[in-house]
Each structure stands twice: as C-alpha cells, then as structure tokens.
Amino acid sequence: MKxxxxxxxxxxxxxxxxxxxxxxxxxxxxxxxxxCELRExxxxxxxxxxxxASGRSSGLYSLGKAKRRAA
Length: 71
Description:
alpha+beta, three-stranded antiparallel sheet, globular, Arc Repressor Mutant, subunit A, 3 strands
C-alpha cells in the first residue's frame, strides 16, 4: 500500500493524524509531503498547528468534507 493510501485510510478511520503517529504507525517521515499529494488528488485536508510538550509546533491534519467539483 502506498504511503498516501495509508495516510488517507488513517484519516478516514481516526479523523486526524500527526507526524509522530505517521512515524510510529507507518514509518512515514515526510507526512507533510504525503498530505500535499493527497490535496493534489482533490482531498480536502485541514491543518491545525499544535504545540507539543517540548514547545515545538507540528501539524495536526484532519479530513474535511469532500470538495465539489465544478461541472
């Protein structure tokens, strides 16, 4: 299974994903790149920046409603 498929399946099942989850669950080290690819495929993915315990910010990605395609 491609990494983009793994990320999309995770988003559909759990609602959100972080870089730490992507590494731990799927060994995906470039989550932002996979998110970019999913957006290019037409997926509506939201990003919210969160601060971790160390004070560093990272993205929390979630799947939004499907975008309507122009006729």
